[in-house]
Structures are given as C-alpha cells and as structure tokens.
Design goal:
The complex is a heterodimer.
Chain A lengths: L8 E2 L6 E3 L13 E4 H7 L4 E3 L3 H5 L8 H5 L19 E7 L2 E6 H7 L2 E5 L2 E7 L6 E5 L1 E2 L2 E2 L2 E3 L8 E3 L5 E2 L5 E3 L9 E2 L2 E4 H7 L4 E2 L6
Chain B lengths: L1 H5 L1 H28 L8 H35 L3 H11 L2 H7 L4 H5 L8 E3 L11 E7 L2 E6 H7 L1 E6 L2 E6 L1
Antiparallel strand pairs in B: 2-3, 4-5
Helix pairs in contact in B: 2-3, 2-5, 3-4, 3-5
Classes of the chains: A alpha+beta, B alpha+beta.
Chain lengths: 213, 170
C-alpha cells in the first residue's frame, strides 16, 4: 500500500512502512474476524456491509463465488524453503501468541475442532463455526482456571461446553448458561492464509500436527 | 567543408551523451518494473532501489529529457543525410513515453481503490451470499463487514468505525 501524504510503501500483512519517510512505523492492528456472511449477520444484525461499486459489478470484474478454488492452481512466489509435509497453497489458520507462531492446517481444524492447545505459554483453543468455514480462537483460562472445551452434540447452532464447570458457550466465546454464564473468553487473532505466505512472514512457525486422532 | 570537419568531434560527443542519457532514462524507469514483478519474491534491497528510482525518476527524467531534446535539436541542425536525422528520431522516441511512465505507478493501474465506499444494512445486503466470506470488525458497538470478493478487487478500503479511522486491506 502507498499513502498519499508521504508516499511511503506499507506492507499489507504487518501494517509496517517498509520504505519511504515513515519507514519503521507500524499501523496499529485492529482485531478482525473472517467469517461467512451468514455467521456474521446472525451475530451482528445491526451491522453494515460494504456495497459493491456498481461500475465494477456491472462489468463483472469482481471475483466469482468459486474464485478461491481457482486460486489453488496459481503459482506461488516465495524465497522460503517450505516444509515438505504441506503443499504451498495448503490453507492454514495462522495464530501468533507472545511471538510464537503456529499454523493449523484448515483440514485438521475441520476434523478436530475444537482443538485444545498451548501457544507461547498461553492455553488457547481453535474452533470452526457451524458453517464449517468461519474459524475463531480463544484463550481458555477463566479466572485463573484452565478450561477444556468440547462440542455439545445435538444443538442446531454451535454450542461448546467446558469440562470443568459444564457451562455452555457460543461461537462468540460467551458463556450462555451454567456457573460461568456471562463470562467472555478473550479472543485470539487468527489469519486464514496459504501455507507459503504464512511461512514467509513467520519463518519460525511451527505446524500443528494432526496426530493419529 | 572546413566547419563541418571541425565540429565532427563535438558531434560524436553529442551522440555519445545522447545515447547515454536515453539509456539512463530507460534504465531508471524500467528497472523498478523489472525488479518488482508480481508472482516473484522480492528482496528488501531490490525494493529500496526501486523505491528510490520511483521517487527520483519524475524529476530526473524531465531534466534528462530536456537535455536530450537540446542535443537532438543541435545534432539535427548539424547533421546531413536523412538517415542521420532518422536515427536521431529513433533514439529520441523512447524518451517521451519513458518520461511519462516515470509519472505513473504501473502497479496502481492494476488495482482500483474505492474512493467513496458506500454501505448497506444487513437486510438490504442482497449482493452478498450467505456463504461469502467477510472481514468483520467492531468498534464501540459499531459493526462493519467487508466482503472478501470486493476486497480482492479493491484491496484497500478506508472507513471510520466507531469513531476510529481504519483501513481494511486484502
């Protein structure tokens, strides 16, 4: 990105100015979610959505609905030596906690959600929504107590329960019933990324091991 | 004949300078294009060079183009033979588009920002499918979503959410 005022060049992933008068400055990162529209609008019925530009939409220049499938075959550009176990365009959920980076292959998240883990010394978990697309991560320590979450079967929308108190939690990380009702889990930022790209910006990343489960 | 002979070394030098200037203009304009190719990794050093060249090339190409034009005019007056004049034109021709290109950012031709972004409430947002992915933020109770299909085209959208100016990028 380039800013009009100083002409500095900014790296999109990090928000850092890499060239120009503002070199070394970093934009403050804003917590964001990457969700399906269905999930977002259920949570935020009063929200507002960016409208398409009529000229661009009219001439059919916006990406088609299946554009991500077609991207799977686009060649990659990287100077990193990639782990042989993952293809460059494997979709991963990238998480950084206290400087420790970890990539969770999206397929593993789909299979094992919710995934209990510890990253950078912090107990966290990764969970996919009932749309099987939206991924979120949370810290799983509440009032100094480490919790273990599992999916509550038989509910129409995603409901999690913790093994320690039996409280029930929704996809926003809020306890909706039980002893911890009203508590909000701390959100952890996730980045849906291609493996080669995540590795380029996080060279020391570890990869979540699917294991034998 | 005597005048023509005495100006010959000067002419040779003028030709040499003209060729060097033309080559320099083309180099400073085309090098960043070559260094920053899409779908190929870049190095910090390559980017630094490109950035410096993009920064200085508008003024440098203008000065160089003016100098080249003066040399061409002078050589034109002192050259006989249509082929010499034709050669002058051929050497000078690339200078003009290169000087123009120095004022352009060809990377930004590919990407069209959204200068006046407009928003719809959820119940009016028929243009987004339920399965489409959105980037979502919330500030002070104000929630905004940026559909990825639009973001993949515009790449950069500026907004103010809950009083905080933000830039959404993809």
């Amino acid at each position: 990105m380039r800013d009009e005022e100083t002409g500095s060049w900014w790296q999109q992933v990090s928000g850092e100015a890499i060239l120009g008068p503002l070199k070394g400055k970093r934009l403050k990162s804003v917590f964001h979610d990457e969700l399906t529209f269905a999930t977002w609008k259920r949570e935020k019925p009063q929200g507002r959505v960016l409208k398409p530009d009529e000229g661009v939409a009219g001439s059919g220049q916006y990406a088609k609905a299946n554009w991500e499938e077609r991207m799977a075959n686009v060649p990659v550009a990287t100077s990193q030596v990639l782990d042989q176990s993952l293809k460059p365009r494997t979709l991963v959920v990238g998480i950084t906690v206290n400087g420790a980076a970890k990539a969770y292959p999206f397929d593993a998240v789909l299979k094992q959600s919710p995934i209990m883990d510890d990253l950078g010394g912090t107990p966290i978990f990764v969970v996919v929504g009932d749309d099987k697309r939206s991924v979120r991560a949370f810290e799983r320590t509440v009032d100094g107590r480490k919790l273990e979450f599992f999916l509550k079967p038989g509910s129409s929308q995603l409901v999690l329960a913790d093994a320690e108190t039996g409280s029930e939690w929704d996809f926003t990380g809020k306890a909706i019933s039980g002893p911890l009702s009203g508590q909000q889990l701390k959100k952890v930022a996730v980045l849906n990324d291609y493996w080669f790209d995540w590795k380029a910006y996080n060279p020391k990343t570890i990869v979540y091991d699917l294991g034998g489960r | 004949m005597t005048t023509s002979n005495s100006s010959f070394p000067g002419r040779k030098l003028a030709w040499l300078v003209l060729l060097v200037i033309t080559a320099a203009i083309l180099a400073i304009v085309l090098a960043p294009v070559w260094i920053i190719q899409p779908f190929s990794p870049q190095t910090q050093r390559g980017l630094e060079w490109s950035f410096a060249m993009k920064r200085w090339s508008p003024i440098l190409t203008l000065i160089a183009a003016a100098a080249a034009l003066m040399l061409v005019v002078w050589l034109w007056r002192n050259s006989r033979g249509w082929w010499r004049k034709a050669l002058l034109v051929i050497v000078f021709l690339p200078v003009l588009p290169a000087t123009w290109l120095a004022r352009q950012n060809h990377f930004e031709w590919m990407f069209n920002p959204l200068p006046n972004p407009a928003y719809a409430m959820v119940n009016e947002a028929g243009f987004v499918d339920d399965s489409d992915i959105v980037l979502a933020i919330e500030f002070k109770g104000e929630a905004a979503a940026y559909p990825v299909r639009q973001m993949a085209y515009h790449h950069v959208v500026e907004d103010v959410v809950g009083g905080t100016p933000i830039v959404a990028t993809y």
